[in-house]
């Protein structure tokens, strides 16, 4: 009788442990700002209370995610409602969240590799020259390699001789209220529309995206998109000056460079 009870309790104990159900999902890719459900569950859905830990290896060594303040307010478990469901939900993903996550029960472990993509600007090595007339608008293209990527720390800047301005997202100087992004619902399209161009807008423009990758090994790349914008006085004015200077003194003045 005692033997029988003992056996029963052993059997019960084994059943109570959680064997992880094996789905083949080992890698998950998300974009910055997205949420992710890292799946982990007991194959026996009747599993009662189960010892569970979730660790991340994003800094190279294991750390319990619930003790890691970087995840504060972004984690959710469901095992209080359904004990066999050990999945971890992480919201508002950051690029630094990328790494291996380990779900451990008393019996087993399961690793999932999470990739979190930020924006990497389309590679561009040359400065592009753009010529526009005063009063017109211009779109300076700047896009992430994946048009669904969400940039972080995007900046458009303006330079000309001894003059610098941030023009997006901070709008300063004479560009104020004349610039906006033309995203078209694609978060990775950072193209800038500048309207009502004046000769003062002539100069260099750069679009850059700075990743804040504190713990990521490997190279931190930062691509730039650079434009040189040349502003011509409008067409009629160019032609008139040209005729005038040529006729009067024969001096060659090239249009657009007569600004003081
Ligand atoms: C666990 O719970 C989450 C949230 O309710 C759900 O999306 C997921 O499908 C569940 N997983 C299993 C294996 O039931
Ligand atoms: C980005 O937006 C601009 C302006 O709407 C559009 O002309 C351009 O094609 C877009 N680029 C991509 C890669 O979708
Ligand atoms: C100057 O005028 C000519 C003819 O009147 C025109 O064809 C040309 O496009 C004009 N120049 C510019 C820069 O618009």
From TrEMBL:
Biological process annotations from GO: cell surface receptor signaling pathway; cellular response to lipopolysaccharide; immune response; negative regulation of T cell proliferation; positive regulation of T cell proliferation; T cell costimulation
Domain Ig-like: 33-113, 120-207
Organism: Clarias magur
Keyword Transit peptide attributed: no
Leader sequence residues: 1-21
The name this protein goes by in its record: Neogenin-like isoform X7
Gene3D superfamilies (alphabetical): Immunoglobulins
Membrane topology: Single-pass type I membrane protein
GO CC, any one term: external side of plasma membrane
Keywords recorded for this protein, A-Z: Cell membrane, Disulfide bond, Glycoprotein, Immunoglobulin domain, Membrane, Receptor, Signal, Transmembrane, Transmembrane helix
Keyword Cell membrane: yes
Principal cellular location given in the protein's record: membrane
Subcellular location: Cell membrane
């Amino acid at each position: 009788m005692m033997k029988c009870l003992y056996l029963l309790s052993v059997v019960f104990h084994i059943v109570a442990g959680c064997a992880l159900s094996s789905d083949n999902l080992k890698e998950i890719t998300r974009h910055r700002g997205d949420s992710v459900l890292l799946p982990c569950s007991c194959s026996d859905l009747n599993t009662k209370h189960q010892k569970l830990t979730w660790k991340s290896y994003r800094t190279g060594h294991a750390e319990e995610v619930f003790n890691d303040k970087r995840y504060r307010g972004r984690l959710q478990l469901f095992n209080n409602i359904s004990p066999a469901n050990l999945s971890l939900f992480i919201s508002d993903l950051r690029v630094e969240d990328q790494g291996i996550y380990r779900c451990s029960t008393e019996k087993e472990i399961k690793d999932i590799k999470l990739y979190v993509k930020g924006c990497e600007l389309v590679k561009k090595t040359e400065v592009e020259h753009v010529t526009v007339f005063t009063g017109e608008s211009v779109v300076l293209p700047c896009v992430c390699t994946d048009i669904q990527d969400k940039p972080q720390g995007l900046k458009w800047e303006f330079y000309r001789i001894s003059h610098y301005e941030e023009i997006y997202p901070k709008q300063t100087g004479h560009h104020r209220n004349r610039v906006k992004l033309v995203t078209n619902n694609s978060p990775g399209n950072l193209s800038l529309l500048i309207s009502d161009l004046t000769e003062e807008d002539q100069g260099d423009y750069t679009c850059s995206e700075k990743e804040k990758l504190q713990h990521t090994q490997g190279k931190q790349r930062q691509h730039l998109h650079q434009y040189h914008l040349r502003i011509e006085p409008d067409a009629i004015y160019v032609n008139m000056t040209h005729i005038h200077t040529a006729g009067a003194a024969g001096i060659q003045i090239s249009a657009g460079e007569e600004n003081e």
